[in-house]
Amino acid sequence: MARSTRELILNAWKAGTVVPALNVPHLPMMEPIVAALRDTQTFGLIQVARLEWEKFQAKSLKAIRDTYSQVKDERYTRLHLDHVPVLDEDNKRVDFEAIISEAAELGYGSVMVDGSRLPLAENIACTAKVVAIAYRAKLPVEAELGAVLGHEAGPLPPYDELFASGKGFTDPVEAQRFVQETGVDWLSVAIGNVHGAISGAAKSQKKVEARLNIEHLDRIRALTGVPLVLHGGSGIRKEYLLQAFRHGIAKINIGTALRQAYEKAVPESAAAARQAVYDATVTTMRDELEIAGSAKIINPGS
Ligand code: 13P
């Protein structure tokens, strides 16, 4: 029987390596991403966030599931539901329970609820509700604590100030309480990482080169004891990334690097856009994350 996503992420975590989770904001990106994972023998998750069917062309949870079903390769891929916010980037309330339930019915292998814009107690309460829904479907749940900025409209605060001050970083003691009280499987943390912009001119511009506070990550790791997740994975300085994978980060989300490759090439032709996504995925796996060949560690014997 195919291994569950819970087990696959645990395998990466124990081995000190990482599972890339690749966003699909445009449906034609799916096939070249899966092909690149297969050709580099890398294990990865294909994922979609709510904002990608609201603001990009992922269309719907079902459209993503159907496209995935046509091209999936279970030696190298599983399907994950990324960011379902409780309060979204425009400060609107979202019916997160309905979206998570729909994903479970459609056959997604894992889900994320994002209550990180809420006060701690409310984030815990909403996350616990999702854990209860997911438990019935035997799905692992990812949640977020701390502020991974970047999806909101308007400019980011200056990055160097943000990094030096540690403002918005996940608090390790809060993280311990959060994991204990929610029973969440994986925790997305803020340790210097930021999301690529999704609106305005910044959406097509080069992302700031983020750094990571590895000592801070160690403090979170020591108190939580669950696989940790790094959002905003595009464009982080490589020396930090490779350390982070050995210090508890078992899943890394990559969106902007692949989306920008697609959007830049699409005016030329659909074939050029397909090739651009394929090439960007191969480069990211092989040269930036250095995880080509990871399937034999994460999903052995399949
Ligand atoms: P980037 O777009 O910055 O790679 O982040 C992706 C992400 O974290 C999606 O959840």
Structural account:
There is one protein chain. The chain has helices at residues 5-15, 30-40, 50-54, 61-71, 96-106, 120-136, 159-165, 172-182, 214-224, 238-246, 256-265, 270-288, 295-298, and strands at residues 19-23, 44-48, 77-85, 110-114, 141-145, 186-189, 228-230, 249-254. With 302 residues, it is α/β, with parallel strands linked by helices. It has one domain: TIM Barrel, CATH 3.20.20. Helix 5 (96-106) packs parallel to helix 6 and helix 11 runs antiparallel to helix 12. The longest helix is centred in the C-terminal third of the chain and has 19 residues, at 270-288. The radius of gyration is 18 Å and the shape is globular. The model has no long low-confidence stretch (mean pLDDT 96). 1,3-dihydroxyacetonephosphate (13P) binds at residues 23, 49, 82-83, 195-196, 231-234, 253-256. Residues 23, 49, 82-83, 195-196, 231-234, 253-256 line the site of 1,3-dihydroxyacetonephosphate.
